[in-house]
Write a structure and sequence with these properties.
Blueprint lengths: L4 E5 L5 H14 L7 H9 L7 H5 L3 E6 L4 E10 L13 E9 L8 H15 L4 E7 L3 H6 L3 E9 L5 E10 L1
Parallel strand pairs: 4-5
Antiparallel strand pairs: 1-2, 2-3, 3-4, 5-7, 6-7
Helix pairs in contact: 1-2
Protein name: N-acetyltransferase domain-containing protein
Keywords: Acyltransferase, Transferase
GO molecular function: acyltransferase activity, transferring groups other than amino-acyl groups
């Protein structure tokens, strides 16, 4: 029997699970495309407290298994400022700032369910496109969700580490 997922706004008590999922996904999934030093630097910059302002602003959603209420993924959607692109900040774009599924949850479709909900929320805000700076290991996932690859960017995560990311866009 396939687990039933519920997508909901994150609440402050989800911080521990969001942090755990984020760091475990980086260690287990992102390590397929990034070196050990970059992965360590990426994990080291994560802090539980950094999620709280986004939770309070209702920018983070979680996927949880209905039966157990176990959080198995999260997504972060925010207004796109246009600062990192050639496009103007016209208010018609939203950006996925993070999307991670628990690599050990054993449930299929967590990421897809989160993307669909983030897209629906973007539409509610009047967005006509959603953008993401995808880690290299997630590019194929985003393509399966209907996103198109743009150019490669670099994301500075520490003085020593700079990650390559793929700019992605989907027109709603």
């Amino acid at each position: 029997m396939e687990a039933e997922l519920r997508i909901r706004n994150a609440i402050e008590t989800d911080v521990e699970e969001i942090y755990r999922i984020h760091t475990e996904a980086i260690k287990k999934k992102c390590s397929t495309r990034y070196g050990a030093e970059d992965v360590s630097a990426w994990v080291a910059r994560q802090e539980k407290a950094k999620y709280l302002p986004f939770i309070v602003a209702n920018e983070i959603i979680v996927a949880e298994i209905v039966q157990s209420r176990r959080v198995v993924g999260f997504g972060h959607l925010t207004a796109d400022t246009g600062a990192d692109s050639d496009e103007t900040a016209d208010g018609k774009a939203m950006q996925i700032r993070g999307l991670f599924a628990d690599p050990d949850c054993g449930v299929k479709g967590v990421g897809t369910a989160l993307v669909k909900e983030l897209e629906n929320r973007a539409k509610e805000f009047g967005a006509v496109r959603v953008k993401a700076n995808s880690s290299l290991n997630a590019v194929e996932f985003y393509k399966k969700c209907g996103f198109f690859a743009l150019d490669i960017t670099r994301h500075q995560i520490s003085e020593q580490s700079c990650l390559q990311c793929q700019k992605m866009i989907k027109y709603l």
